[in-house]
Amino acid sequence: MMRGALAILLILLSLGAWAATDAELVDWMRKAMHGDAAARASLEQTARAGDASAAHLLGHLYLRGQGVKRSEATAIEWFERAAKEGHVESMHNLGVLYERAPKPSRNLEAARRWYRAAAEAGFARAQANLGQMLLEGTGGPADPAAARRWIERAAMLKYGIPDLRTFYESDLRWLKHYGFVPLDVPSVAGGL
């Protein structure tokens, strides 16, 4: 009986069953921002055990240089660790970092990949950024049709519109209600 309980305990420990709560992570983050080495060590230990939120918070610490020496390279390492665990905001942050890095470190293809990963997970800012890159052909070939779809998805999320077609239809009804008519476009049939 005792051996069975010990075996279960060892399995749970190896699986990370003792994960930190959100409140603990926030507390460690606040303390680490003010230079508390023990709090930063707790965040690092939790992140190394596979906690994506802890890795994301560490990325912010290093990106901002709060409580640690500022290092974009270290921030990227922590954001990548979190992103690979499925942390959507870290995916977006990687897109921003790779897109806006100074010339030698800029990687527009990687930015576009990370924006796409976050966009596909439903992150509106990543959808808008990916749409912009697709529209301009940044980090890969231009695709105006895909750009429009991503930008519309971002707008739908931001404004809580389930379908943009109803938004456009409402706008046209409003214009007609107040007496606006569509512009007369000259045509050959109409006598230019």
Structural account:
The chain is elongated, with a radius of gyration of 24 Å. α4 packs antiparallel against α5, α6 runs antiparallel to α7 and α7 packs across α8. With 192 residues, the chain is an all-alpha fold. About 7% of the residues have low confidence.
Brief overview, please?
The chain has 192 residues and is mostly helical. The protein contains 10 helices and no strands.
Biggest beta sheet attributes: none
β-strand amount: under 5%
- Please report the number of helical segments: 10
Q: Give the integer mean of the pLDDT values.
A: 85
Give the class from helix and strand content and strand pairing.
Answer: mainly alpha
Q: Specify Rg, calculated over alpha carbons.
A: 24 Å
- What oligomeric state do these chains adopt? single chain
Q: Please provide the ordered H/E string of secondary-structure elements.
A: HHHHHHHHHH
Looking at the structure, what is the overall shape? elongated
Estimated helix fraction: 55-70%
Q: How many strand segments? A: 0
Low-confidence stretches: 5-18
The rounded distance between the terminal residues' Cα atoms is: 94 Å
